[in-house]
Design a protein that fits this description.
This protein is an alpha/beta fold. It is built from seven helices and seven strands; from the N terminus they run αααβαββαβαβαββ.
Length: 204
């Protein structure tokens, strides 16, 4: 009997070399390798920095960030979903899109603010491409607005984007606010995926 879409996805997932590497390295997610490649190119996860990780569950990005900023730094991980504890990570089970979630983040941040904001957020897919794309861009816009509020100096924003409607206008907004915006597709991003990552550095 032919396999359904879910069965094929499970087969692809289990045979994915980045899934296997994540398991071997003790990372919570294959997505860790996306952040690893971006950081190796841009060097934003430096010792002592304060990092905010939006939509952090299951914690792969927060895990790497905590390792790289060390005990002198701090990582604040936000997600509506529950997340198992991670050493060096303060987990806030909140929705940052709400006033209560923003208040919880502001209370947890040091007075100087954050040095880096990370967002690997993606919407729950409805299967309606236009609606899903609009929601993905809306999340990226929220990350951009939050970065404007909480980033201190140095300032780095890393955001997942999906190519399509709203992509170019989001980049234009980011380039108005940051001195340098680079778009990259890490090797761990699946080739068929429309996802890319914007690394925005140095607020104007």
């Amino acid at each position: 009997m032919a396999k359904g879409r879910r069965g094929r996805w499970i087969d692809d997932h289990l045979s994915d070399p980045f899934v296997q590497k994540a398991q071997q390295a003790g990372y919570r997610s294959r997505a860790t390798f996306k952040l690893l490649e971006l950081d190796e190119k841009h060097r934003f996860l430096r010792p002592g920095r304060v990092v905010v990780d939006l939509g952090a569950a299951p914690g792969g990005w927060s895990q790497l960030a905590a390792q790289r900023v060390g005990s002198q730094g701090a990582v604040l991980a936000l997600d509506r979903l529950a997340m198992a504890p991670l050493e060096g990570v303060q987990i806030l089970e909140v929705d940052f899109e709400t006033d209560a979630g923003l208040a919880a983040l502001r209370a947890a941040l040091p007075k100087a603010g954050a040095d880096v904001v990370l967002s690997d957020m993606a919407p729950n897919l409805s299967g309606i491409h236009a609606a899903d794309q609009d929601r993905a861009i809306a999340l990226a816009e929220l990350a951009l607005e939050l970065a404007a509020e909480v980033l201190a100096s140095p300032e780095v924003l890393v955001v997942k984007l999906f190519q399509g409607s709203g992509f170019d206008p989001w980049l234009a907004q980011a380039r108005e606010r940051f001195a340098k915006v680079t778009v990259r597709k890490p090797k761990a991003s699946r080739p068929r995926s429309r996802e890319v990552y914007a690394v925005a550095e140095g607020r104007r």
